[in-house]
Structures are given as structure tokens and as C-alpha cells.
Design goal:
By secondary structure, this protein is of the alpha/beta class. About 35% of the residues lie in helices and about 20% in strands. It has eleven helices and nine strands. Bound molecules: S-adenosylmethionine. Belongs to the class I-like SAM-binding methyltransferase superfamily. rRNA adenine N(6)-methyltransferase family. RsmA subfamily.
Length: about 260
């Protein structure tokens, strides 16, 4: 406990009890759930989650934190720690290994790789029941943004095509040790059912979204040059002079299917 937090691992330990309780009650774990925590740190969320779920798998990159976590968890429940970079964890394989139909993933994420972690989880969405993450509030705003908003972009479209995104509440810097420079927020992500998923090639969708938002201020006919021509964009009922930020996630799927 109370190790010096490491900046290089994005360590900001949550210490305010009321926020820990709010996160745990938002997750509402049940005995028998297969809960996986990303970045348990000193166990602020791990121990209350373990107390209810009885079994928990935690993925932690910092070796120094592992003995403390094991010692604190021993009287509470069965904590299995995977010492790894979370980006290298195959969640679909982990679900099979744990004998779970789907995982419930939670974590106060290391902010320096929060977007890569989100994209990584989305790749394994079929193996995930839900996700509850603490992130920079600015990132949560982008994830949940709607077309027309200044912060609507690649993250909003890619996440909303895979999950229902629900921002839950804001957490101030003072709730952490050391306090981060920005406000944080907790968000719930629930992967869409197979029949709600976009009908299209994920790689093509990714390519179109990336190209369209690479230069936000340019029109689609400009940014999608080489991918979809102007006449085709128009034939889909989309204005080629529009900017990416005005298109719905479903519009991007239409465009991708035309490439
Ligand atoms: N859950 C704890 C809490 O709320 O107090 C710690 C949260 S802290 C913001 C992020 C945690 O993620 C740290 O424990 C850090 O060591 C861990 N971490 C950083 N990079 C990681 C990575 N690539 N894979 C797994 N864990 C990582």
C-alpha cells in the first residue's frame, strides 16, 4: 500500500470512498460474474468488486504492485493476477480460459493509452458483456458525442458502431493520488447485439472513418478521394460537400460499403 505512484504507468490511485462506491454500484457485480479489471493499482476498486464477485481476474503491468494486491485479496476472495500489458491480452481467449460466456470488464484506465485500450476491447466485443471505465472526461465526451458536435470524431463513430455508450458521472482530480490535471468521468459501454452491428467489412469502415476525419474541415469529396467518388457519395443520399462531423455512424457504413 501507498507505494509512490509511477507516472510512466499512468498511475493515479483512487482514494475517495464515495466514488469507489459509486463505481462499484454502477457495475453492480454479482456472485458468479466473470469480472476482469484492467490496472488494479493498489486495489481501490479490486477489493470491493472481489468482495461481491468472489472471483476476479486483474491485468496489471507494474510488477511492484502485485505482492500487495495478493496480500490484500487473500482474505476476501480468489484474485488471479495476469502480469501483462493489457493491449497484449486476448479477451476472447481469456473468456474461454475462464469458462465464461462473456466478460464484465472494469478499470480506472491508465490515461496515456486509454484510446488504444478502448479500440482493443472493441475488437473483442463479442466476448464482453459490458465495460465500465474511468477515463479523462474529455475522452468520455468524445466517445458519446453526436453528429454536429465539435468533439464528434473517429472515436465517437467507431465506439458507437460497436457499443451503446453511456456516460455515468464526473470525478474530480482530488479523488485521486496524485491528482491528474483534468476531470475524469465514468462511462458504461455495452456491446451491441449481433443483429444491431453494422453490416460491412470492419477494415473498410475503419479506413473510411479515418480518412474522413483526417482533415476535419475538408469536405467528404476531398477526404474520400480515391476511396469513394463524388457521384457515388451523392447516390447514397449523402452530400459530397458535407464534412465528416455531420454524418451519422450509419452513413459511414454506407460509404464503406461503396468502397
Ligand atoms: N485501479 C487503480 C485505482 O483506481 O486506484 C489504479 C488506476 S491507475 C489510473 C492505472 C493502472 O493501470 C495502474 O495500476 C498502472 O500500473 C496500470 N497500467 C498502466 N499501463 C498498463 C498496461 N499497459 N497494462 C495493464 N495495466 C497497466
Amino acid at each position: 500500500m501507498n507505494a509512490r505512484p509511477k507516472k510512466s504507468f499512468g498511475q493515479h490511485f483512487l482514494h475517495e470512498k464515495r466514488y469507489i462506491e459509486r463505481i462499484v454500484s454502477s457495475i453492480a457485480p454479482r456472485d458468479g460474474d466473470t469480472v476482469v479489471e484492467i490496472g488494479p493499482g493498489e486495489g481501490a476498486m479490486t477489493m470491493p468488486l472481489l468482495a461481491v464477485a468472489k472471483k476476479l481476474t486483474a491485468i496489471e503491468l507494474d510488477t511492484d504492485l502485485i505482492p500487495g494486491l495478493q496480500a490484500r485479496a487473500a482474505p476476501i476472495g480468489d484474485l488471479r493476477i495476469v502480469h501483462s500489458d493489457v493491449l497484449k491480452v486476448d479477451f476472447s481467449a481469456l473468456a474461454r480460459e475462464l469458462g465464461a460466456e462473456r466478460l464484465r470488464i472494469a478499470g480506472n484506465l491508465p490515461y496515456y493509452i486509454s484510446s488504444p485500450i478502448l479500440f482493443h476491447c472493441v475488437e473483442h466485443a463479442a466476448a464482453i458483456q459490458d465495460m465500465h471505465f474511468m477515463l479523462q472526461k474529455e475522452v468520455v465526451d468524445r466517445m458519446a458525442a453526436e453528429p454536429g458536435s465539435k468533439v464528434y470524431g473517429r472515436l465517437s463513430v467507431m465506439l458507437q458502431l460497436a457499443c451503446k455508450v453511456t456516460p455515468l458521472f464526473t470525478v474530480p482530480p482530488g479523488a485521486f493520488r496524485p491528482p491528474p490535471k483534468v476531470d475524469s468521468a465514468v462511462v458504461r459501454l455495452v456491446p451491441l447485439a449481433p443483429d444491431q452491428l453494422p453490416k460491412g467489412d470492419p477494415a473498410k469502415i475503419h479506413a473510411v472513418v479515418k480518412a474522413a476525419f483526417a482533415m476535419r474541415r475538408k469536405t467528404l469529396s476531398n477526404t474520400l478521394k480515391g476511396l469513394v467518388d463524388e457521384a457515388t457519395i451523392r447516390s447514397l443520399g449523402i452530400d459530397p460537400k458535407a464534412r465528416a462531423e455531420t454524418l451519422s455512424p450509419a452513413d459511414f457504413v454506407k460509404l464503406a460499403n461503396a468502397t
